[in-house]
């Protein structure tokens, strides 16, 4: 009995078959590992959502030019305390879409409004660092009743960073022009210089420098889009959050290191807390801008005490 040879498989058919399997595998991976919402303007926003959906949610808002990964320590800590922990990559940052438009505070806050609705977040604690603190203030002032229980601003940009007649203690616009120029000239080097120097206070004598922390800052920054990061400098430096702070009704904890070289203490935290109806100021002597990373053993218990209080 003869055995007929099987029909040869054409290279084209093989490639189509193989690519179909690859596409299916990729699609499955994205559904499993990549959680996103799509906003009204078509922007995909990436987020992490860990813990029981029945637990009180804590939403973390990262600083410029980082991502949700900057909150790794705090997310694990509060997950261990029984909370539902959520962090998103701001548009143009991290794994979210690299947007050319909408890179300003009104849209950032609108994105959070959509995220809160999509995840049905109620009675949430919103914690923002640096630019994320501005995002928190802008969002909480606009949030639907019942969405927000408390808020925390850490090393945050409000009330306003840039110097003007109304804000004589602010930083000159030339400082932020320098940020933009450095980003355009060599973003990769700029994103090494910032964490290796003032962000974590590693330029201070006796500082314990972590190369891993520097590398992680660089990694997060380089994931985002140059245009979005460029635009965000204007958003975090020139947005006036005064009316937002005056509008907020919920309790707000304002935490700030006195040796913050990115958002100088004197022109931010003490002024912000005076504008809040129910604000509490907690200062940290000698701590840097990135104190959530350098001193989580100090920051995390204070956050927990405020949330439980």
Keywords:
309 residues, Rossmann fold, eight-stranded mixed beta sheet
Please explain how this structure is put together.
The protein has helices at residues 11-33, 72-80, 105-118, 131-140, 173-199, 211-223, 226-238, 242-247, 269-275, 291-294, 296-308, and strands at residues 35-38, 44-50, 57-61, 84-88, 124-129, 148-154, 252-257, 279-284. With 309 residues, the chain is α/β, with parallel strands linked by helices. It has 11 helices and 8 strands. The longest helix is centred in the middle third of the chain and has 27 residues, at 173-199. The radius of gyration is 22 Å and the shape is globular. The protein has one domain (33-308): Alpha/Beta hydrolase fold, catalytic domain (Rossmann fold, 3-Layer(aba) Sandwich), CATH 3.40.50. The chain has an 8-stranded mixed beta sheet with strand order 1-2-4-3-5-6-7-8, sandwiched between helices.
Largest β-sheet summary? 8 strands, mixed
Number of helices: 11
Q: In percent terms, what proportion of residues is strand? A: 5-15%
- Quick one: CATH superfamily? Alpha/Beta hydrolase fold, catalytic domain
Query: At the first level of CATH, what is the class?
Result: Alpha Beta
N-to-C terminal Cα separation, in Å? 86 Å
In total, the number of domains comes to 1
Q: Helix-strand pattern, N to C? A: HEEEHEHEHEHHHHEHEHH
Helix content: 40-55%
Please identify the oligomeric state: single chain
By secondary-structure content and strand pairing, the structural class works out as alpha/beta
Please provide a brief summary of the model.
By secondary structure, the protein is of the alpha/beta class.
